[in-house]
Amino acid sequence: MLNKVTDDIFKMIVQSNARDTVDAIPHSEQLYRDIVSILSADMHIARRAINILKEAHKILTIEVIKEDKQNNIKRVEGYVEAEFNTIKRLKIIYQNALMDEYELQYHRRLMTHQIIKEIYSKIAAFKNTPIGQLANKAIMLEEFEYLLEKNYTEYTDAWKSKKLNELFEQTENIDTAQEEDVEEEPEVAPPPVTEEPAPSQEPQRAIDAEGSAEVEESQKLSPHAVQKLIKIYGINFFFRVQLRKYNFVHLYQIVESGMIQRRDDLKLLKDMIKTVRSNYAKDQKLAEHYDELTRLDQAISHQLLFVRR
Predict the structure, then answer these.
(1) CA triplet 56, 255, 138: central angle to 5 degrees?
(2) CB 200 within 8 Å of CB 272
(3) How confident is the model at residue 181 (pLDDT cuts 50, 70, 90)?
(4) Is residue 141 a contact partner of residue 91, using CB atoms and an 8 Å limit?
């Protein structure tokens, strides 16, 4: 069931991406409705299938609309086939659309990079607007093009197929184990409560033991206090603790606020996220936070475009 739904969803995304219009990137809200109505799949199956396609590098995601709980705006993401020619073609479509939309509204023609620079100088004014969405897609498609060039081996058909099979097998094993647990219901004493497995399994040093608790509580502190913690314990340690505790939302807020100004620090966090993603098949809890991790990764990509040092 899951294999079939996953394959059908992928075909729906590829078919949508084949259009030569600005609706070529399907949005999550509409795609999920289509999955339920056309494929007759349950929502939880649809979400699992989408996550598998992401993790198998069959598709890439773009945050089209940022979540805004205060104004009751839900997060919307778009889906793109992780194939170089598809990404390159869509990049041109959305760059041209961005220039056209800007000219229509402001009666002057600017190049894509000029528009993006202007948007980021007053980003709040363009948040969740048509121009803001077009700019976001144009930026991310260019980033995806670079990603596929840099990490080519992880986007070959062979790599994708192997990863897809691993994820399906892992999912089947988890489902089987859950069914056996329900059927057997052994009457044994529960195991002692232990800390849940972390995305990063690196051994703790002495400084880790001293600072972990303080860094874990950093999400309750002011930006100034967070910067002080980073200065004391170092950016590497701060990132590792946050990732180990699945504090992806907290890291996203830190990146979005512009608190991390050094390009090397952003690249360090991006590399750490890549390591975390490699544990997806082994870490069931990571799947629950997949969207948060993807959102963080995309925020870093955005910042890297504008941080030069």
Answers:
(1) 60
(2) yes
(3) very low
(4) yes
